[in-house]
Amino acid sequence: MNIQQLYEFCLAKKEVTETFPFDEDTLVFKVAGKMFCLTSLKRWEEGNPSLNLKCDKEKALELRAEYEAVEPGFHMSKTNWNTVKIHQDLSDKEIFNLINHSYDEVVKGLTKKMRTSLGL
Length: 120
Hints:
By secondary structure, the protein is of the alpha+beta class. It has 5 helices and 6 strands, in the order αβββαβαββαα.
């Protein structure tokens, strides 16, 4: 996976926007104004990329036990966020699945009215 693939994959999802709310380095993808994927552009340039992804708390623990590349979310809630290191023991397909899960977790947390109005 490269940054362009990540960018295109995330922006292809319904109601997704990209922002830099913290600084010029941290790219944040949001669905309906809620974060689901964060990454450092500098880390991609340095060859050590990672993503912060929202995750169901039970699944988060399972992933951390199964993969070295998955750790508690850096600067995030350790219960519901994982940091996923790219180019380690996860395939691109598995990473895309984790991004999908993160997106779905955020959408699931929206009100029914909001999901309906956005067509989610």
